[in-house]
Amino acid sequence: MARHNGTRGWYGKVVGAALGVTMLAVGASIWTAQADTAGGPAPKPVTTSVKPVDVTIAHSSDQGARGVNITIDDGPDPTWTPQVLAVLEEYGVKATFCMVGTQAQAHPDLVKQVVAAGHRLCDHTVSHDTGMDKKPVSYQSQQILDAERMITEASGGVRPMYYRAPGGAFTPASRKLAASRGMRPLGWNVDTKDFERPGTEAIVATVERELPNGPTLLFHDAGGDRSQTVEALRRVLPELKQQGYSFGFPVR
User: Fold this and answer.
1) Is 4 a catalytic residue?
2) Which of 80, 185, 192, 216 could form a Cys-Cys staple with 226, CB 3.0–4.6 A?
3) Which of 107, 124, 128, 220 is catalytic?
4) Is residue 146 flagged as an active site residue?
5) How many Cα neighbours within 13 Å face the side chain of 33?
6) What contacts 81, CB < 8 A, 6 or more positions away?
7) What is the mean pLDDT of each successive set of 10 residues along the chain, which is 252 residues long?
8) What's the whole-model pTM score?
């Protein structure tokens, strides 16, 4: 999700949970570093064979010039994720869910529902630290790799296909690490500002105004009351279909 000012109590809980994450050893590489003073060595990646992907930040749609990518950040959440899934199913739309590791670990049933519905998974780090680009590379590695493991385990073995840095806090090291793990760095073109709950009308208006900037739309299914997001999706999805857009996934 985009960077926002002010405290976010929900994320305080996530950060607290993340402190319990075990950091395991990872082989030496150009993206890892010696452990920082806060803990042990860097974490171990999921031990499955993966094919590296492009290191550049993806924005385009696999549906071409008239494609739209719906991306949903910060969940899964037991209240709002099922409602988002229901709206997506109603209109036959597939989306990319950028999941926070501790949320995935806490709600594996929802992760499995997302996968079963044909949506894609995205690594959104362990604790959603929007300042992680200012932290040591070892910390960035822990955030990415531990979240990858949490999401993969919660899904029953389906790995995330993308990596979205919280608040867009990408670094060359984090992008290279994610890409080496088969997770394409994922940006966005339209920040709907739904996290700020500006009202359904405002969210819809933002999509209509900013869609010419590019096809990847940013919504949220966690972090607070997401009823405006659910209603905005209920408005936006059929309108975009009527305008001749098709829904796809970010390029890989």
Assistant:
1) no
2) 80
3) 220
4) no
5) 12
6) 75, 97, 107, 110, 113, 114, 221, 222
7) 42 41 32 32 58 98 97 98 98 98 98 98 98 98 98 98 98 98 98 98 98 97 98 98 98 96
8) 0.84
